Amino acid sequence: MKKERILLAIGLLLVTAHYLINSFYPLPDFFSGFLIGTGLGLEIIAIVRIRGKGGTICNKKQEPII
């Protein structure tokens, strides 16, 4: 669970770093897309790993939607 939290934190930092850096220094489109894409990819990987292990963030049993 600790690795997933680290991946999630790094992903969030990459996405927010893009906006902070871009506000002071305009980034090229390639670098901007690379930061956002890598950050979102890490976040998705972390969420899939958390869901795949059967653990939930709030430790509640999930009921079916239907």
Count of helix runs: 2
Order of helices and strands: HH
Main sheet properties: none
Instruction: Give the terminus-to-terminus CA distance.
Output: 29 Å
Tags for this model:
66 residues; mainly alpha; 71% helix; elongated
Overview of the structural elements:
The protein has helices at residues 2-24, 29-52. The protein has one domain. Helix 1 (2-24) runs antiparallel to helix 2 (29-52). It is elongated. The chain has two helices and no strands. It has 66 residues and is mainly alpha-helical.
Layout of secondary structure:
Layout: H1 2-24, H2 29-52
Helix pairs in contact: 1-2
Entry summary:
It contains 2 helices and no strands. It has helices spanning 2-24, 29-52.
